Amino acid sequence: MLAERLDYIMKLTNTRNAELAKALNFDPSYISRMRSGKRGLPLHHPFIDPAARYFARRITEDYQKQSLSDKILEGKQWPEETDTAAVILSAWLDEEEGNPSFNDNVSRFLDRLSKTTSLDPTVYYPVAGSLEEGDLSEMGTENANVTFYYGNAGKREAILEMTKRVVMAKNADTMLCHTDEGLDWASEDHFFSSRWYALLARYLRDGGKIRIIHTVSRDYGELLGAIERWIPLYITGRVDPWYCPRTRDGIFHRSLMVIPGQAALTSNSIGPRVSEALCMFTRDSEALSAFEHEFNDLLSLCRPLAKITPLKSLSELPKDLSSYTYHFDKCGLIPANVQLYADEKKGTAVVHTTEPYLLFTSEETHLTRIFIDYWMLHHE
């Protein structure tokens, strides 16, 4: 359990609750409750990776290294490099907590990218092929300026209604999306996910664009997992992802989707209580304008997150990739048609080296750190 491991490493490194809390920007009482098992991992504040790096710097004595060697590495020598030690501690602290580690998420991301065979996003969603015009017109019959939906099921219905409208309209607009609410409303219904992704794929194939503000206060492995799931949409080069570096209090959450001039939906929730939240769908022109301004106000506080760029040939690759500090070129740990580069100052670059040629890039520091940690975990 995390509580037992946290208590062990804190005792071994002589770390007090207040010290760890200050270093990680937590309340000391929260750390105390985590040690006792009364609280689990925070939902909207990174803990595992920052804590691992903190403890790695405090492991300086021989007895500490020997204890961790016996407990974690089955007697193998504890690494002298702090970064390598942090990777090991991160994987150990995150073990058995029911969340994929950054290692698993990076592996899945690379595997998904390597299996890309077409720039048509509808290829990856079989449902998209069955979305004929008759099916699309089944929804979108509601002409009221404002419609209210309730709970998770209502939110899913509203999102499908809105997305079908923009597919039916066949005009190449830009859909604006942001949510920092919990994502159970989407993940608990796999049929919804397949239908929604298929609709988005149709929308992008027909010339639409999506500008999305991701929430990096989620676990960073979860963030990379989200990018991995969106790869079939990202490969079009028509998804423009951003993130807001400013953290929020984790209490008040909001979702906002806007198709300028056509429709918008919004919902609010308190903490994790999303299941009974009100979702409002509107076609009112003044409301649409207000929501578009709200999204752009938030966007002005954001930074670009990542980009997948289709290339005509590998000759279009940046010339400085060989200067990146960390890189997998030809290695059995990653797919043969993928190359991975990472540098703390330059960011991350992942290259799909067979047709269709693709370049994934990101300068977001935490995503770059994930790829560097992945390299350190596997590099001999």
Written overview of the protein:
The chain is an alpha+beta fold and 380 residues long. It folds into three domains: 98 residues, Orthogonal Bundle (434 Repressor (Amino-terminal Domain)), CATH 1.10.260; 185 residues, Endonuclease Chain A (Endonuclease, Chain A); 72 residues, no CATH class. The strands form two sheets. An eight-stranded mixed β-sheet has the order 1-7-6-5-2-3-4-8, with helices on both faces. Strand 3, helix 12 and strand 4 form a beta-alpha-beta unit. Helix 9 runs parallel beside helix 11.
What pattern of helices and strands is seen along the backbone?
HHHHHHHHEHEHHEHEEEEHEEEEEEH
- Mean pLDDT score: 82
Q: Multimeric state of these chains?
A: single chain
Instruction: Name the helicity range.
Output: 40-55%
CATH class of the largest domain: Alpha Beta
Per CATH, which architecture of the largest domain? 2-Layer Sandwich
Give the strand order of the largest sheet, numbering strands 1, 2, ... along the chain. Answer: 1-7-6-5-2-3-4-8
Instruction: Indicate the radius of gyration in whole angstroms.
Output: 23 Å
Structural class: alpha+beta
| Morphology call | globular
